[in-house]
Amino acid sequence: MAIEIEDISFRYGRVVALDGVTARLGEGAVGLLGPNGAGKSTLLRILLGFLAPERGQGRVLDYDIRRQQALIRRAVGYMPEGDCFISGMDAVTFASYFGELAGMPRQEAMKRAHEVLFYVGLGEARYRLLDTYSAGMKQRLKLAQALVHDPKILFLDEPTSNLDPTGRKEVLELIRDISTHKSIQVLLSSHILDDIESLCETVVILKQGKVAAEGRMADLRALDYSLYEVRVKGDPAAFRRDLEGLGGRVDEMEDGLIKIYMPEAGDRMDIFRAADRTGVQLRSFVKSRTSLEDLFAGVVGVD
Amino acid sequence: MAVIREKGYTHWDGRLVERRFPWSPITRTGILLAFRKKRFKLVFAATFVPAFVFLVGLYISERLEDFKAMIQGSDRLINIGPKYFVSYFTNDSLLFMIALVLALGAGGLIADDLRHGSLQLYFARPLGKKDYIAGKMSVAAFFVLLYTAVPGLLLVIFKLVFAGSFEFFLKYPWLPLSVLGASLLLTVFFAFYIMLLSSVSKNNRYVFVLVFGVYYFSEILFNILRGVFRTPYTALFSIPANIKQVGAAIFGQAPPLAVPAVWSFAVLAGFCGLAAVVLDRKIRSVEVIK
Q1: Structural domain boundaries of chain B?
Q2: B223 burial class (0-12, 13-18, 19+ CB within 10 angstroms)?
Q3: pLDDT of B184-203, one tens digit each?
Q4: Which of B7, B116, B286 sits opposite A51 (nearest CB)?
Q5: pLDDT one-digit tens code per residue, A185-238
């Protein structure tokens, strides 16, 4: 296991940020998902040794998070959430500087800085002052400095925040390339479901500092309910009440689509029977794949 | 799917090294960045003017006959001895220029990192808080030593060269040590001073104002209090006065004011201690927003 944590707890003053988090995060891209304030960034900071947990223990690449922080930081590349750069520097100097601080020899760091800047798409802008970079360029720059010393694991904290759709797509494409082809493990923290769903094989969902769900995406999708998407003509309220009486959950979308979560043990014919009983016509009926969004909504308790 | 890669990713086949001084890249980069700033090069060069003036004085002192007409009233520059060195190390123009160089070249060292959130990038590397502070302080130390220890020792050497004998050295064999001591005093104090002020604001323009504001406010306060209380002990409130007191003591001279130099030293040391405490609290890898 790349990362193992057991019973990790941390609080900022009286605010509990993490409460007994236990998880084992394996190979490939792992998603850390949760709403704002769930404790995702705090967990990353504990893994990096920025914060000492009140309770619990953990290992990153077999290094103890309490005692071997320097070794962890050598092996990990960290891309923080907010803007971070050094005023008055160009990208090459910036990337090579952090390569050197990671322990790379000076000339190697400079050579490597050029390589990673080309890789993240900043090759042409590598001698420009960072103060003039756009938000998207700064995101890529942060990725470049995280990659410069060729880490074994990348910690990415909200890597697509503040990006326009095109920039987001490009950064996600880069992360996918890194995690699938470059034998670098990725721990991606995000509150954006699509990012996690499109990149990660494994996910840990945090809610109020606790693990709400954890596992392989494929396994988590196979939940104990079936999702159907239907459109009806008639009174959906009565239809809804009938289905809820059968143990199902019904979400009405703005565009008239109705999502029905039926117990796995139930029969799809129950939906047709409910429609018949309540006098509504089923105009379309699709058995949908349970998405991470549904899982997320279920465990975190939001629509 | 958009492809933005101009070049594929390749693994680095080198090996990360453990440096004896892991903060050395911070210092080197800090010095290089200072020289990229507008106006800094001019100020940097101008700060050597006091050293040049003292060097000229030193030359003239060995050629008194040739410069008789010029040197009337310039005893301070041509009587070469410990007093001459006290004058160099504690003259107002040198202290002002050091403050200016540090305000321009080192004022943003921590302030910019706080402003742009780059502290977490440093601490994501195998660096501790002490390494970070040592790296940043060494930038300030580099500049101060360049204006104190280097010219100070060169003045001693030039004196010997111009005199063509070791008589001066035999008369004051401890002088090089005093030069180093005074340089160390100024270096340590100004390094802590600039780091403290750089860490209390995220805006390096405010830091610039603070560097001179605090320095001269302390001197003004001293003069006001001295006028009110009629005691030289109010000099303990003044940064330049304390530097002059300790500087004189280091060269074995009587302090300019009737206050024990050790008191002034304690004030300066206390200031450095306070700066260390503030730095310890301000430099954090994680900023907690309450």
Answers
A1: 24-282
A2: middle
A3: 999 999 999 999 999 999 99
A4: B286
A5: 999 999 888 888 888 888 899 988 999 888 887 777 666 677 888 999 988 888
Q: What distance lies between CA A189 and its chain's CA centroid?
A: 4
Print the SS3 string covering chain B: CCCCCCCCCCCCCCCCCCCCCCCHHHHHHHHHHHHCCCCHHHHHHHCCHHHHHHHHHHHHHCCCCCCCCCCCCCHHHHCCCHHHHHHHHHCHHHHHHHHHHHHHHCCHHHHHHHHCCCHHHHHCCCCCHHHHHHHHHHHHHHHHHHHCHHHHHHHHHHHHHHHCCCHHHHHCCCHHHHHHHHHHHHHHHHHHHHHHHHHCCCCHHHHHHHHHHHHHHHHHHHHHHHHHHCCHHHHHHCHHHHHHHHHHHHCCCCCCCCCCHHHHHHHHHHHHHHHHHHHHHHCCCCCCCC
Q: Give the list of residues 6+ apart from residue B266 with CB closer than 8 angstroms, or none.
A: none
For residue B157, what pLDDT is reported?
93
Total number of domains in chain A? 2
Tokens 């405490």 label which residue?
B277
Whether chain A has a CB inside 8 Å of the CB on B290: the answer is yes
Q: Are residues A115 and A230 in the same domain?
A: no
CATH of the domain at A182: 3.40.50.300
Residue at a domain's end among A187, A216, A245: A216
- Look over chain A and give the mean of its residue pLDDT values, rounded to a whole number: 88
Report d(CA A204, CA A2) in Å as an integer: 14
Rounded distance between C-alpha atoms, residue A184 and residue A152, angstroms? 5
Q: What CATH number corresponds to the domain at position A267?
A: 3.30.70.100
Are the C-beta atoms of A9 and A55 separated by less than 8 Å? yes
Nearest CB to A149: which of B16, B29, B33? B16
Residue in the structure block whose two tokens are 């000076």 = A106
B120 at the A interface (CB within 8 A)? Answer: yes
DSSP 3-state of A151 = coil
Task: Indicate whether A178 and A267 sit together in one domain.
Answer: no
Q: Closest approach of chain B CAs to the CA of A293, in angstroms?
A: 23
Taking only the tens place, the pLDDT of each residue in A245-296 is 888 888 887 778 888 888 777 788 889 999 999 999 999 998 876 666 666 6
Cα→Cα distances B288→A45, A49, B203, B282, Å: 12, 15, 19, 11
Instruction: Report pLDDT for A303.
Output: 44
Q: How far is B238 from chain A (nearest CA, A)?
A: 34
For residue A116, the enclosing domain spans 3-216
A96 and A137: one domain? Answer: yes
Question: Does A13 have pLDDT greater than 80?
Answer: yes
For B80, residues 6+ apart whose C-beta sits below 8 A from its C-beta are B57, B58, B61, B159, B168
